[in-house]
Amino acid sequence: MIAIESIQNIRTVVQLSRQNLFVDRYTALVGNTKKATLKHMHVHGVLHGVEMSLMFFVMPVVVFCAAKLVSNHQLDIDTLLMAAAYVSFLSRFLSAVNLTLPKLGQSYAVAHHFTRLMYRKPLISMNDTTENQQHPQFDPVEFNSVCFAYPTRPKIMVLNKLNLTLRTGQSIAIVGTSGCGKSTVLSLIERFYDVTDGQLQIGGKDIRDVNLRHFRSLIGYIGQEPVLFNMSIRDNIGYGCDLNSITMSDIIDAAIIANIHSFVQTLPQGYDTLVGLHGSQISGGERQRLAIARAIVCKPQLLLMDEPTSALDDENEQIIQDALQHAAENRTSITVAHRKYATFYTSE
Ligand SMILES: Nc1ncnc2c1ncn2[C@@H]1O[C@H](COP(=O)(O)OP(=O)(O)OP(=O)(O)O)[C@@H](O)[C@H]1O
User: What pTM did the predictor assign?
Assistant: First the structure.
């Protein structure tokens, strides 16, 4: 985990000159594993040594006794050969068991962990059939006295009796101090969590009775940090949708609205250009504009934006704000924003 994290965030690690810290942590962890493995190997080695020594010490005694019995005509040679073959098979079998047993224990532990993960049931399932597939109504989104605490911190109420109504065509901004629960409101609308108390209604129905897969398909989300994959620009824009249901002209339309089309046209491979791991081959502003295009390519009815310009410089911020304003046109939207942009994002 330490190795993966530090390699994924190598720029930050190098920028903070913390390479040695991570190497030390990694070495310490590997050191612990090494100690445990060495102990195990020592025990295993001693047991194997005893087993082999017994075989070699006992063998001459057995051969000597057998020879004596044969010379005294108390044992015939056929029986002796048969007994020797049995002993040889038995010792090989025991040695194989000795080698396999520790691995069997390890495999059991891994299999146990794996099956526990496989059969874990999410509290909120995407496959519920509580409502028919077509549930186009999400107007209004209504929070009625909603209280919410995260499952990992059940005693800390993040939202306390929140009331909020959002109707079709409205654009609202949620503004507040850091940690007051702005992003949590968006997570509840996407139903990543269920409310602890009160009611969240979508189109007059409790959100728990709404078909989740279909409802989420009506939502476009733009976050603070755009997440891109090492795929082409076309696929990065299109993967938010079923690729069979959108055309190249849908992708270009979304790119035009997101202010990224003219940049893509300057690239030799255009929409087939690979963006690199985590989008490392394009700039932060270009990444965010691709994320905007992806969020709107499926023509969502509701757009959720969580401080989408927070990681950008002033110039990029202006370009992204223009793109966001275009993206939010004729749509219902909620924006988590800094205080200074609150009026910019709201329609009333
Ligand atoms: N997955 C989680 N598990 C437990 N607590 C969480 C989780 N996510 C957020 N919190 C806590 O819930 C509170 C609200 O978090 P939230 O992200 O909604 O705040 P925010 O207003 O969006 O903050 P910011 O403006 O800094 O992004 C914070 O105190 C945060 O530590």
Answer: 0.71
